[in-house]
Design goal:
The chain contains 6 helices and 11 strands. The protein has about 200 residues and is α/β, with parallel strands linked by helices.
């Protein structure tokens, strides 16, 4: 059986980084070498190159930008000593080309790749990396979390410092507050740029 590409996805604050770090620990506990990656724009731990969970555990990771060739980076590390698993945090920030490179890591180097990220932004629009992971990964695993309404949270609302909803701005904005919501609580038709609204008689 060949190595697979996995995409673990969820809404914000569901424990993706915790799950990644636990998987990494499980490999290393068995004496296996892993490679961890995190995007350069994520400096929430005070500096880039650190994967940190909300419960306080963390690990150092290789930083990547959209221009980096992850296949070459992983192959280089594999030549220095067998890599048993590659783990990527905030995988929504991967480019299409980088997701393609990760499929080659599985298919040509026979190394499993575990990616962790969210599917959509604060307007309900898909991130580039997530779109291609959903299209090309063999294994799609949802990490579930709950909205304040009690329903399953699948969307990510952006909030300002006063916890007011933010409906404009760049797709990528590190450091703002986010809240996981159900699609109904998120009110997708009023937020989405798709250009359709619910008829007035149903509001």
């Amino acid at each position: 059986m060949g190595a697979k590409l996995f995409f673990y996805y969820s809404a914000m604050n569901a424990g993706k980084s915790t799950t990644l770090l636990q998987a990494d620990f499980n490999y290393r506990e068995q004496g296996m070498k892993t490679m961890l990656f995190t995007p350069s724009l994520d400096d929430r731990a005070g500096r880039s190159g650190v994967i940190q969970s909300r419960i306080g555990i963390q690990a150092n990771a290789t930083v990547f930008d959209k221009e980096d060739d992850l296949f070459l980076e992983i192959r280089r590390g594999h030549m220095e000593g067998k890599v048993s698993c590659v783990l990527i945090d905030e995988a929504q920030f991967l480019s299409q080309k980088q997701v393609l490179q990760l499929t080659a890591v599985c298919d040509r180097l026979d190394i499993p790749v575990l990616c962790y990220g969210i599917r959509t932004d604060f307007l309900g629009e898909p991130f580039e990396g997530s779109k291609y992971l959903l299209s090309w990964a063999e294994e799609l695993i949802e990490i579930k979390t709950v909205c304040k309404s009690g329903k399953k949270a699948t969307m990510n609302a952006r909030l300002d410092a006063d916890n007011n909803r933010v409906l404009s701005g760049e797709q990528v904005s590190i450091g703002l507050n986010y809240e996981a919501m159900s699609r109904k609580a998120f009110d997708l038709p009023s937020v989405s740029p798709a250009g359709w609204t619910v008829p007035d008689d149903l509001n």
